[in-house]
Amino acid sequence: MFDLDLEKIMVIIIVAVVVIGPKDLPRALRAAGRWIGKMRRVSNHFRAGVENMIREAELEEMEKKWAEQNAAIMQAHPALGTAPAQPLPPHAEAQVAAAIAPEPIPETIPETIPEPAQTAATPPAP
Question: Which residue from 14, 45, 74, 109 has the least number of CB within 10 angstroms?
């Protein structure tokens, strides 16, 4: 972007030391760092907002496309969308209820906690 090579950086450093002075140079560099950090945060916030707007526009475009495709499918097959739901036979209702019911949580908490095995590094207790 700025095409800074070693010679240009050295000239900038020398000018900064002469103009600002070696005593106030750390304070000036901290202030410059804060300004650069603020600019980066603002640019990242702006970039995120633009990307969010682009993503929302793409989603709207996809929703329009899907609505058009859905309308075309419904025109091609009108009987699919208007078919009444068939009631389940009595024995099938129990099977469906059993299939979607949550399994009970088994209570397998041990009554005693097993003692850890001794290793070769630890001496046996007297």
Answer: 109
